């Protein structure tokens, strides 16, 4: 791909020089004016040709892969222990393997008596209002156990894999349905997938009626719709009228192949079904029945033992219940790992329209199985801290997949919407990814964190060392892309790209920073500089130094940038306000903004809410937006332990009228003008006061760091660390007990979970806080 495009470019260049060359070969005498005219035309042609050639070249850069060895070398059957898995995090229970065109298996269900108002359950959906669901144990390799509560039914889904053989081995999935209040409740269970490889073995309970069909579904994103279309009502002696699956008329069309085989089972609870998938080339038969029950019990015990060995939560004094919640959090993070395959839609300033990225796989965790069941770049860095703690194999593979998505420019699209199932869940306006858009380099920092904490797994000639070696040029390209593309106007300053004023937003969003609506300069401009990004660049340079050092490569360039960005005097010149004693962004700013309702000129136009600017903006530090970004020089450990400014930050950190709440640090100070303000008529506050766990994790981790490095602020840092951690862990666990979920964010007012649920992405980092490991 790359080579082809490069040679295209060369062809165009040589064509143009040929053209101008042939005109000068003409030796016939001619009048000067003609010569000038010809020369001008020649030069013009040359310019146009070069321009078009360059344009074509620039146009293709956005979707040209980085040239070099792929970081992922082993995939598919060459990673047998992770071949099959629950890699469809967006459905309640589904399995597939790590191949681009894997068959998919999955479960749907409905309650016979309530079918009309509750509908069929399939995709994890907040509107299903399930009191709770999620993996309570999952090791990422061979076994998992999930509980789903859908009153009056409880469903337990488990699976055990037997890897090996030439075709990926066996697996058995068990679906165990019980009723809470009344026994013998009729329940409809649907299993779909490829019929010839699975056997359904009812293990316990009564199977009242079965129907199935060979069908053709137009795509993975329409399975439930297809299912509905197959249902036909029949008379049944016991149930009166019963919806059963009938034949698919679409198959009359010879072009359409069978790709969807749903089996509907009307059962009486309690009911236990074993779904046995077998490739029959293993010496051991697949598990089922009592044998499965026995092995499941062993898997549970050994998982629990290993979890305690790794995190030592009981040893640290946490109760059995709290430790079980931590276990469920980590399990749902691991159980949320998906395998996606497809193309993103991307755009650069040189492409007239969005173009497809190259087709690629992505093995990644997801922030939320219901709301964000796909990969997000900066989230994945945070996820990796916990996933990598459980299994470096899994995390190195995830990071490698992400790094293989880097293009020749050094850019990685920040949101990955791969495949029709993923695409169906994203509003159109968010699908296209711009190559000007960054997202914090947390993944780079996570990799360096792993290198620091576990140097032994990166020893010479080890598997992870080789992977890290292949990652290195990609990491370096990504890092350089940041330094160049997000550079600010002043030396050593940085600016997030992608802010746009539209006259509607109270404060134009900075989606790329990850902190969406966190207030920045009111009037986006090129003079802007962002303190959080400058600190990310420090941490990135530090991470590159760590990684290069491990690989025994030249660290000097990375160290030079790290030391420059770590120079406190430079940082203070750009971002410190001695007026408010805080760090802040700089830009064209006024606090005089508000949302007002504007009435249209004609009644038909109606009215809309727009932004009104009541006092003109000035170039200044945006000190009124005190909050998370003001803490970044501490959060990312830019400040030296002896720093006077660190002292100032720690001094006010526990002020309840600013950022401290009994539930963790709030994102924006109560004193800030935009605290908990809507951004538009339709946009409620998001990063304007709510407590977010990823940033709190950075805070807890930084406090621990400063507590351990000595210096005048160590005692204060230690004390804040203990209190902040207790607040966070206490509230997350208490909300889980109350609501059955981990949440996207928590209210700074009463600690209540808000945003989407379950959000077992970075919220699950409280497990590392409990373990006291950062
Ligand atoms: C099914 O689930 C119930 C309730 O969790 C449990 O008591 C029972 O042992 C399970 N049965 C099997 C065969 O796994």
TrEMBL record:
Its EC number is 3.2.1.106. SUPFAM superfamilies: Six-hairpin glycosidases (SSF48208). Keywords: Endoplasmic reticulum, Glycoprotein, Glycosidase, Hydrolase, Membrane, Signal-anchor, Transmembrane, Transmembrane helix. It is found in: Endoplasmic reticulum membrane. The keyword Transmembrane applies. Pathway: Glycan metabolism; N-glycan degradation. One of its GO terms (biological process) is oligosaccharide metabolic process. It is an enzyme of class 3 (hydrolase). It comes from the Eukaryota. Residues 8-26 have a biased composition (Polar residues). It catalyses: N(4)-(alpha-D-Glc-(1->2)-alpha-D-Glc-(1->3)-alpha-D-Glc-(1->3)-alpha-D-Man-(1->2)-alpha-D-Man-(1->2)-alpha-D-Man-(1->3)-[alpha-D-Man-(1->2)-alpha-D-Man-(1->3)-[alpha-D-Man-(1->2)-alpha-D-Man-(1->6)]-alpha-D-Man-(1->6)]-beta-D-Man-(1->4)-beta-D-GlcNAc-(1->4)-beta-D-GlcNAc)-L-asparaginyl-[protein] + H2O = N(4)-(alpha-D-Glc-(1->3)-alpha-D-Glc-(1->3)-alpha-D-Man-(1->2)-alpha-D-Man-(1->2)-alpha-D-Man-(1->3)-[alpha-D-Man-(1->2)-alpha-D-Man-(1->3)-[alpha-D-Man-(1->2)-alpha-D-Man-(1->6)]-alpha-D-Man-(1->6)]-beta-D-Man-(1->4)-beta-D-GlcNAc-(1->4)-beta-D-GlcNAc)-L-asparaginyl-[protein] + beta-D-glucose. GO terms for cellular component: endoplasmic reticulum membrane. InterPro entries: 6-hairpin_glycosidase_sf (IPR008928), 6hp_glycosidase-like_sf (IPR012341), Glyco_hydro_63_C (IPR031335), Glyco_hydro_63N (IPR031631), Glyco_hydro_63N_sf (IPR038518), Glycoside_hydrolase_63 (IPR004888). Residues 83-199 form the Glycosyl hydrolase family 63 N-terminal domain. Cleaves the distal alpha 1,2-linked glucose residue from the Glc(3)Man(9)GlcNAc(2) oligosaccharide precursor. This is Mannosyl-oligosaccharide glucosidase.
């Amino acid at each position: 791909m790359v080579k082809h495009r490069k040679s295209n470019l060369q062809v165009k260049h040589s064509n143009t020089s040929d053209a101008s060359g042939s005109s000068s070969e003409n030796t016939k005498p001619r009048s000067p004016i003609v010569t000038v005219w010809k020369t001008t035309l020649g030069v013009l042609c040359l310019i146009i040709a070069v321009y078009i050639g360059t344009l074509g070249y620039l146009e293709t850069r956005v979707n040209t892969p980085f040239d070099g060895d792929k970081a992922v070398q082993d995939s598919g059957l060459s990673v047998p222990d992770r071949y099959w898995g629950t890699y469809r995090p967006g459905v309640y229970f589904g399995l597939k393997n790590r191949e681009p065109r894997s068959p998919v298996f999955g479960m749907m269900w409905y309650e016979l008596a309530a079918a009309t108002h509750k509908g069929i359950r399939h995709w994890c959906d907040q509107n299903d209002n399930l009191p709770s669901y999620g993996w309570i144990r999952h090791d990422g390799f061979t076994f998992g156990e999930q509980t789903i509560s859908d009153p009056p039914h409880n469903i337990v889904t488990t699976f055990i894999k037997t890897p090996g053989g030439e075709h990926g081995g066996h697996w058995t999935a068990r679906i165990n349905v019980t009723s809470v209040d009344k026994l013998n409740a009729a329940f409809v269970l649907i299993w779909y997938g490829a019929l010839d490889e699975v056997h359904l073995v009812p293990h316990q309970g009564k199977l009242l009626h079965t129907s199935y069909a060979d069908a053709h579904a137009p795509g993975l994103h329409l399975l439930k719709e297809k299912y509905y279309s197959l249902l036909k009502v029949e008379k049944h002696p016991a149930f009166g009228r019963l919806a059963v699956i009938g034949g698919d008329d679409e198959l009359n069309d010879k072009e359409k192949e069978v790709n969807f085989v749903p089996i509907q089972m009307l059962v009486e609870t309690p009911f236990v079904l074993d779904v046995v998938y077998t490739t029959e080339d293993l010496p051991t038969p697949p598990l089922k029945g009592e044998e499965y029950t026995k092995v499941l019990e062993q898997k549970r015990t050994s998982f629990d033992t290993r979890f305690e060995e790794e995190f030592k939560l009981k040893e640290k004094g946490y109760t059995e219940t709290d430790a079980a919640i931590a276990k469920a959090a980590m399990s749902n993070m691991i159980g949320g790992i998906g395998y996606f395959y497809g193309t993103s839609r991307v755009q650069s300033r040189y492409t007239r329209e969005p173009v497809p990225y190259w087709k690629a796989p992505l093995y990644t965790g997801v922030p939320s199985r219901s709301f964000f069941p796909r990969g997000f770049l900066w989230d994945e860095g945070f996820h990796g801290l916990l996933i990598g703690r459980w299994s470096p194999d899994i995390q190195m593979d995830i990071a490698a997949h992400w790094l293989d998505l880097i293009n020749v420019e050094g850019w990685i699209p920040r949101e990955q919407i791969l495949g029709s199932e993923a695409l169906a869940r994203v509003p159109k306006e968010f699908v296209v990814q711009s190559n000007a858009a960054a997202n914090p380099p947390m993944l780079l920092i996570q990799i360096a964190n792993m290198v620091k904490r576990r140097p032994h797994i990166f020893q010479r000639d080890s598997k992870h060392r080789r992977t890290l070696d292949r990652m290195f040029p990609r990491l370096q390209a990504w890092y350089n892309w940041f330094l160049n593309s997000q550079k600010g106007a002043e030396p050593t300053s940085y600016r997030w790209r992608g802010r746009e004023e539209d006259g509607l937003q109270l404060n134009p969003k900075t989606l790329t920073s990850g902190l969406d609506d966190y207030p920045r300069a009111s009037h986006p401009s090129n003079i802007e500089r962002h303190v959080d990004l400058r600190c990310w660049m420090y941490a990135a340079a530090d991470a590159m130094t760590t990684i290069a050092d491990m690989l025994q490569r030249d660290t000097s360039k990375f160290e030079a940038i790290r030391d420059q960005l770590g120079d406190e005097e430079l940082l203070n010149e750009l971002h410190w306000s001695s007026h408010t004693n805080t760090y802040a962004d700089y830009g064209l700013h006024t606090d005089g903004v508000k949302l007002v309702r504007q009435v249209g000129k004609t009644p038909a136009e109606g009215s809309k809410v727009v932004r009104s600017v009541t006092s003109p903006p000035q170039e200044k530090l945006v000190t009124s937006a005190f909050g998370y970004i003001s803490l970044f020089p501490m959060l990312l450990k830019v400040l030296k332990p002896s720093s006077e400014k660190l002292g100032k930050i720690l001094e006010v950190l526990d002020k309840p009228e600013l950022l401290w709440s009994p539930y963790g640090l709030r994102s924006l100070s109560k004193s800030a003008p935009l605290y908990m303000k809507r951004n538009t008529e339709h946009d409620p506050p998001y990063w304007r006061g709510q407590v977010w766990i990823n940033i709190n994790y950075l805070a807890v981790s930084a406090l621990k760091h400063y507590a351990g490095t000595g210096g005048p602020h160590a005692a204060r840092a230690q004390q804040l660390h203990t209190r902040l951690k207790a607040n966070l862990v206490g509230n997350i666990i208490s909300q889980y007990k109350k609501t059955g979920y981990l949440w996207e964010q928590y209210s700074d007012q009463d600690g209540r979970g808000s945003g989407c649920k379950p959000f077992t992405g970075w919220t699950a980092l409280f497990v590392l806080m409990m373990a006291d490991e950062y």
